[in-house]
Amino acid sequence: MTEKFISNVWLTALITFLIVGTFKGLWQSQYWDIHVAPEHNIPEWNLKKVLFGHIPNLICTLSYLAVFGNALIFLLLQTAGLMYMTYRMRFPAWRD
After folding, report:
1. Sign of the alpha-carbon dihedral angle for 83, 85, 87, 92
2. CA-to-CA distance for 77 and 81, rounded, in angstroms?
3. Which of 52, 61, 56 is nearest to 80 (CA)?
4. Are 13 and 63 in contact (CB under 8 A)?
5. pLDDT tens across 55-94, in order?
6. Helix axes 71-89, 55-68, angle to 10 degrees
7. d(CA 12, CA 82)
8. Is 58 within 8 Å of 17 (Cβ atoms)?
9. What are phi and psi of 15, to 5 degrees?
10. Predicted TM-score of the model (pTM)
């Protein structure tokens, strides 16, 4: 969507990073950490999760999108990264 307004691919990637990062931050803090996985919200680890998990994931996938322009691969990489982290978080079993 940002490409419709900005022609420079790297500026578009930066603006998209800021928009997606803001959305994901609000989603995490206002919904996910409260209703879906409150055990995932450990204040001592929140900054580390963002700095070493969410931000590198978004930078790598957006860089791929900016260089190759393939939105499907961007979405697949995002999904794969988030699914891997969900597996690594080791949620309690659904029956608990």
Report:
1. negative
2. 6
3. 61
4. yes
5. 888 888 888 888 888 889 888 988 888 788 777 776 666 6
6. 160
7. 23
8. yes
9. -60, -45
10. 0.67
